[in-house]
Structure formats: C-alpha cells, structure tokens
Design brief:
It is built from nine helices and eight strands. It is of the alpha/beta class. Helix 6 links the parallel strand 5 and strand 6. Helix 3 packs across helix 4, helix 3 packs parallel to helix 5 and helix 5 packs parallel to helix 6.
Length: about 250
Amino acid sequence: MFTRTIGTIKAVDGVNFSIAEGSSFGLVGESGSGKSTIARVLLRLEEPSFGQVRFNGVDILRLSPEEMRRRRAEMQIVFQDPYASLNPRLTVRDIIAEPLVIHTDLRGEKLTARVVELLELVNLGRQHLYRFPHEFSGGQRQRIGIARALALHPRLIILDEPTSALDVSVQAQILNLLDDLQKRLKLTYLFISHDLGVIRYICDRVALIYHGKIVEEGATEQIFTAPRAEYTQNLLAAMPIPDPDVSPFRN
C-alpha cells in the first residue's frame, strides 16, 4: 500500500470575532467557506488544531468533558435541515424532552408541561405532542427544532442556515418567530447563512468569510451600504433586486 501526503487544508484560519450579549451576529459565505465548521468548533462538536473559544470569559476548549457537558446547556444549535435533524422514531414530546431529561430533574407531568410551554413559544400546541416528524411540514419541523434548542434556557443559539431548506413564505414566518423570541427571551444569536437578505433582516453585525478567513466585518447596514472588501462588493452586486423596473444587468 502506497500513501502520499499532498499538503494540509485549513478549513478555518485566523478567524476572530465576538458577539455582544442579546445581539444577532451574522456569518456569511459561500458553500465550503468554513461557516459550519466554525459553528461546530464553537460547540466543540469538532476540536480545532489551536486557538480559543471564549464563552462568558471562559475558554471552553480547556474544559473537561464533564464541565463541557454542563456548559452545553447554555449553547444550543438549530440545524439547516428540519427533515434530517429530528429523530423520525420519536414523538415531538420525546424530541423536545430529550435535553430536559439529560440536564434537568423534570419528569412525568412536569416534563410534559414544559414541553407544551416550549411548543406554544413556537406557535404549536399540546395537540402536536404525540405526533411524529413525518406528520409535519418543513416549517413546523423547524419550529420543533427551535423549541428543542430553547428547552434549557440557552444564552447562545447558533442558527446554521435555518431557513435555507424552506419555501420563501415559510422562511419569513421563521425569521419573524426568531426575531420575536430574541426580544422576548433576550437571546443571543450566531446566524450562519449564504443569504444576504436574511442576514440584513435579522443581524446587528455581520462578518463575510471566504476560504476560511474573515474578509470584512462590521455593523450590518455599514456593510450593505459601504462595503470595503472586493469580495463583499461582488456578493452584494449579485443580490437580486425585487423591483421590476431595475435591470438585472447592472454596470
């Protein structure tokens, strides 16, 4: 058997940003740019080669497995695909209850009551408790995923392309729900997307990532109205304009 080393590829290189508590930070880039890798590193679903991930002043990369297990209750994620991220063999009650069973002492009726409370937060209800994921639409499944992420009162929620698999009208409903939940529960979001329109709607600050490196970061409106990096300018120029009187062939 013959092997040959042809080099090392850095999925993420020198990325540095901070998220203010209670704000929404957008991470934008093309497929393969390193966005989801960053999300997985932040949650320690993947271990980086070096660097720091500081959460509330603590470098979580130095935490023991038991310490990290406790910290995970404060850091949750909503995945891109609402069809693949829910266990098809579990009812909605069991899906949302799972983190509560792992991290809390809630059981029986108290556990069910908390699940119902979470369902109502995302505009579902008790009648959905004992249904299975295949009985729901894509938008409803994503609401279930959001309810599961909210179960442990997290301080940070990572939203990894949470609307990209949904129809446009359903995307708007989910974005409005996320915006409402953030205001009501004082949540902090890291919103990962390749959709600049979505980022502009929901994020306070945004960073553009290209080939694993941040090429520009700033307040969202500043980035959209006066981008400095050529990559950012090209992305914004490629955005569709929802105006029939504006030619798509802009100079």
